[in-house]
User: What shape does this take?
Amino acid sequence: ILIIGGGIAGPVAAYWLAKAGHRATVIERASSLLKSGQGIDIEGPAREIIDRMGLLEQMKARATGEGGFAFTDDDGKPVAAIAGGLTQEIEIMRGDLCEVLCRAVDACDLVEFRYGTKVVELTQTPTHVAVTFDNGEHATFDAVIGADGLRSKTRDLAFDEKTKANAFRARDHYCAYFSLPREDGDSPNSRWQNATGGRIILIRPHNQDVSSAYLSVMEKSDKLAAMCRADKASQKKAIAEEFEGVGGLGPRAVKGMLESDNFYYDSLSQIKLEKWSQDRVALIGDAAYAPSAVTGQGVILSVLGAYVIAGELSENPQDPVAAFEAYEARIRTFVDTQQTISLNGNSPRLANPRSEWGIWALRTSFKMVAWSGIWK
Assistant: This one.
């Protein structure tokens, strides 16, 4: 079985396939382990599955230690704080999670992991999938699993135009994720600063040496949308221009972003497909049902989908088409529920006010929440 994508869902699927006695090849287009990305929460089904993999204690050891969450004023000074942080269970950086998962897969004799490899063509037959790689190599596999994220190349290659139509649901929300040197005050609380125009600066604790930072903009912008396909230098320049003149945490965050070699930028969009498989090719994780980072459900869906698809392939080893249909039937309702964005999809706009008045109202509301103690 070929698995395209070495982030989160791909390694989890490979691990459980190997445990069931299946050979799997995992390819990743990046030249090395993916280390960028945001802080993520390991909870619910994802926590249980990772515990079954024997990796939970390693995850806890790499937890960020975020102790609380503070809103700041325009000068970057906290105006109110709450305990508990932005996540509910184990907070870990995406790169750390990927590293732990990939090390677990490396220990599986039945899994081959190849970096710097892309698929350029998929041709399906009744008995196999013929694959052409970017180096000209050809190979055949019983089935292919696409775990290659929001902008899945597998989805583009294998799915018909009707299925792909309107799958990508842009939400006019863009974010840069990066690391920057840690300073006093970065721990234990994360710090959130709003700026007019739907802009947010967020700095969160990571480890003793670095902090993680986010610069996000919520606006309808052809320029920011085009940057999703641009090179990193262009992306950094565009975000720096968006935050020009913002005080408080702004200058440090922009400087750190421009100097960071651990940088990622994309839109906070969703993927919604009528079906997740096309004969012997199936999608998991963000490639099939990206929920948007604002839901906080990405890791849960990626890990759960990988676990279930591996289980169904183990139950139907001679019929991957039936296995893929069973995988979708088993978790489709749960996935649809987890993709729901609160307040009829409007909650991100409340957190990203465009006006001075909107920012004042948000900060005032947060002060009341902090004072009341209702956030536990």
